[in-house]
């Protein structure tokens, strides 16, 4: 059994262990979005009066924007052979990386709390299952998948995709041909700038939130894998599934009057063919539970990176398992305390994640593609006295300024609307402001790297000889 459990976690993956295959990336990220969480995202626009056409456009644009950032992060995996947040030490410092680590850990926990709530509500509505038993089963299954690790996640995701894809195609054909039921709504839908941006921002956040761990699942690819191939595979996989189900979610909300995505999917499928909806709903729920395992795996890497940043840690299997179990208990307890409907849970969690992650993703991508152009001293990423230092003031400053620039434009449901957002009629552009400000600030501050000896133009190719050693 131990040999089936991945041995590595936050350490560097040497070339001889790079057994990943490029074609695995597309199915992994397609299935990652081909599940129940994607459907309620399509409810957001209609819940604010947005028509199906405008919901589809906003959702598609948002997904495309968010997936661009996600896919470019994915190309860092084979280039460096490192978990994403270890690489972020180059921007934020060996210890300073705890700032974005907080944001990423919040993301993993928020996703799994929201997933737990959605699964409980959905399976209760669709099949009458007990919410508590659903939460326990999802937590145990997700933890088990995370413990087996990288290869196990890839394998389970492919199996679920091969089984669920044909059935979802049949349901979608039924929607297009009118066999899935539904009809004109008594509610008047149209266009609203506030609703359009809320739908677009939620969709963008959906795939931007994959950014902190997308390269965790590409780091086993051979070092010579072409970046553009990784980017294309991840982009089309992640974007295709998300756009498909967001549009379907909008249809379920408007034409079928669904208030729960899983129950709506079940009804539409059963209208097409007896028990088809039951099978599709169950598979969609299983896929969502599997993504909880992916989140638990990323959360484990985040926690171990944070501990290692202050106290040298041996990344053993035992450390991985204990961390995953602890995270599972934490999100389970929080999830049981959460109240409110699924749409509000999805929108609020995605919005908070977007605000926290945007300054990090801007800093990381500018550093990798513009400042250092993929050249890092990998051994120094594992040393507080290396060239990247204990505290990366450039990255920390850019993150702080970028986040503060977002605040006046934030819109957090009924809790907070910044003055900038109020001046724009409630339209949420905070994440766009954060991206722009953080990118400019980090690039401007990084020009001084030439004066410190850590010159991005002359930094040699990764020195792998000392990677993972203290």
Keywords summarizing the entry:
18 helices; 2 strands; 66% helix; 470 residues; two-stranded antiparallel sheet; 1% strand; single chain; Hydantoin permease; mainly alpha
Describe the structure.
The protein has a domain at 22-343: Orthogonal Bundle (Hydantoin permease), CATH 1.10.4160.10. The chain is built from 18 helices and two strands. It has helices spanning 25-33, 38-47, 52-74, 76-80, 84-87, 89-92, 98-127, 131-148, 150-177, 193-208, 227-255, 261-272, 276-308, 317-337, 342-371, 393-406, 419-423, 430-446; strands spanning 411-412, 416-417. The model is unreliable at 455-470 (pLDDT under 50). It has 470 residues and is mostly helical. A two-stranded antiparallel sheet has the order 1-2.
Topology:
Elements: H1 25-33, H2 38-47, H3 52-74, H4 76-80, H5 84-87, H6 89-92, H7 98-127, H8 131-148, H9 150-177, H10 193-208, H11 227-255, H12 261-272, H13 276-308, H14 317-337, H15 342-371, H16 393-406, E1 411-412, E2 416-417, H17 419-423, H18 430-446
Antiparallel strand pairs: 1-2
Mean pLDDT: 87
**Poorly predicted ranges:** 455-470
CATH class of the domain at 22-343: Mainly Alpha
| CATH hierarchy: architecture of the domain at 22-343 | Orthogonal Bundle
Quick gist of this model?
With about 475 residues, the protein is mostly helical. The chain has helices spanning about 25-35, 40-45, 50-75, 75-80, 85, 90, 100-125, 130-150, 150-175, 195-210, 225-255, 260-270, 275-310, 315-335, 340-370, 395-405, 420-425, 430-445, and strands at about 410, 415.
